[in-house]
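Changelog excerpt

This revision adds worked examples to the README so contributors can see how folded entries look when concatenated. The first example is reproduced verbatim below.
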Amino acid sequence: MEKEEILAKSRAEGRDEMEISINEKSSHIGAITVVVVCLFFAATKILNNGEKFFEFPAIMFAYLSGMHFNNYLKLKKGIYLTTAFAFAFAFAFAFLCMTILYFLNR
């Protein structure tokens, strides 16, 4: 097979190696985002002994938002920006709701 045939076959399969690599790196950035948010909530738990863990939804949305925003920055595909903002909005909403529940259940 010649180089052009291999490239055509690869494109037909729909697997873009650069996109796969960027998605993997985005997952790592998302994990870092999750750790930072978890540390924030862990600190508040240390300061307020025995509080229930209402923060989990906010943590998940933060992870997804971080991952999709990094995908957008690297790939410049609008769908990633749209999903990043959707998850960021959901994160903000979940953060607000979970914080209210956190303080109401003191």
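The second example, added in the same revision:
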Amino acid sequence: MYSAEYATNHPTRDEIQGIVEPTVLEFGSPDCPYCQKTEPMVKAAFQDFPGISHVKLADHQDKMLGRAFNVDKWPTLIFIQEGREVSRLVRPENEDAIRDRMEDIDANPARSAQSGGS
């Protein structure tokens, strides 16, 4: 489920490791031009993946979660499955790249089969 707003209250790394459902962590900033460019692509990609959670995090120097994940450019999308990082995209160029990574963590393989696997 896509989240349009940036959260400023970050979960801890331990809380992330406790997430069971497939999740995309998005680190960025509302003022970042790269984030603004990527936002419609992320939103569109989530339309076909209702079983994947989206946690959009406002990343700043004082926010330790981004540092814990070695985020150094925005936006950074981290694809989580059963509490562990499966893959990441930094400044994705297109919606298909996001969708491909979402398919890797999708808990509903029937959805992937219905759409032809892509």
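Reviewer comment on example two: The mean pLDDT is 91. The radius of gyration is 13 Å.
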